[in-house]
Amino acid sequence: TRLNRKRITQNLLKTHPVFFRAYDVLRCDGEDIREKPLIYRKEILATLAVTQSPVTFPNTPEQIAAMRESAREVSAEGVMIKRRESPYVSGRKVGHWWKWKLDPMTADCVLIYAQAGHGRRASLHSDYTLACWTSDGNLVPVTKAYSGLTDAELKAMDRWIRKHTVQKFGPVRQVEPQQVFEIGFEGITRSTRHKSGLALRFPRILRWRQDVGANDADGLAHFETLMRDSHAV
Fold it and tell me: Is 0.85 surpassed by the pTM of this model?
């Protein structure tokens, strides 16, 4: 509810206050317990006056899959699976813990604006503004995306953008609404900052849809359905 908001109102502070939730304990009574088993550290954590993350011990893969599928109902990305005997290891070590993320929500959107990227992509138009259709047949910006295409695709798109620019607004180019991209994202919320009235969480390009035309792209109704089905309203 408070993600992607520049201003937090007093009412929102009351209805959705910040809280502290503990997932692990690394040191207790001066002792470093990172090498202790997770189950031991959880027992220590239970003795402390803090709110803990919920812990369950599923018996079957099907139970884990069911938990994963319900993750969006609590605005989570998926489930974190941890070995009971695992130590706490710094960095992105594999083997003990695994984040099983939900499959992303997807939508086909139309490219309407582009501008040059940063770093090694500074010479390429790699930052895209993507739009969807309204019920009255207009394109409305719904998100921006900066990643997902290969270097070869970026170069091809850069050439296309330069040839199909309609207007320029400083570094931003408005292009002919022809190119369609499938985007993936983790969630949707209402937003007054965007013309579409929606904000997407972690948007990225999944593929360049050269097999469809702009008229085949999704409309706002598709996003509304995704949001309703994910209980994000």
Answer: no
